[in-house]
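idk why but the lab printer keeps eating my pages so im just putting this in chat instead. protein + arginine:
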Amino acid sequence: MAESPRRTAAKRHYLMCRPTHFEVSYAINPWMNPDKPMDADLALAQWERIRDLYLGFGHEVSFIEPVEGLPDMVFSANGATVVDGKVLIAKFRHRERAAEADAYRAWFEEHGYSDLKVPEYVNEGEGDFAPAGRRILAGAGFRSDPGAHEELGDFFGLPVVGLELIDPRFYHLDTALFVLDEDLVAYYPAAFSEESRDVLRELYPDAVIATRQDADAFGLNAVSDGLNVVLTETATHLIGELRERGFEVHGVDMSELLKAGGAVKCITQEIRRP
Ligand code: ARG
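predcted complex ->
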């Protein structure tokens, strides 16, 4: 096998929301069970560990104030998609999360992001949209409306690659795929329709392929800065593959946020500037 390339980190800006009001009080994906106990202190400690890792890598982290009654607001990836400093606000599929969109909109307005769009179609931000270099990979099937893909491409002026999700356990694109750097992704093929699998194979012949166990462990719900990759420590096969490709892997325990169907990427929104 060819020697793995030297990886380099680029400075990132992330938006996070403290899990102050986090709980599992409804079920809108197959991982959620309101009857199962959740340890709120542990959830906070797990969230703080991710924040501290980002700060330790030298990244900028901003925080949005959590809102009472919005227990999933900790999953800031869903609030908006930001590319070139332009902000496409989310529009949530479920009424339980609908009010989060206004909170994210207010945050961006207050922080001087004037090129901002409130969408017509349902989109759950970076849950389904993964900017990768000068293109955006966009999932649909469970949450974001396929109509949102055109809206996305028009707003950012970038080509959009639509991908169809077929397994309800992998209901957002970011549960089945993540971007390692501009032209490299990792994904779990069985989460996608056959057609979308062909598209991915064509676009990313060198992609890191995750196993069912990696995907079940939420290992693809990961964040990469080009060098450091933060992901759930139980995705052991994926961790080995990433190390072999020259990435610095930081395995974390996300047991409590997993009870809501989210892990590292879900609690991390990236603010991309021009
Ligand atoms: N309970 C949340 C939901 O079902 C989890 C969202 C996870 N976020 C993500 N980016 N996949 O909407």
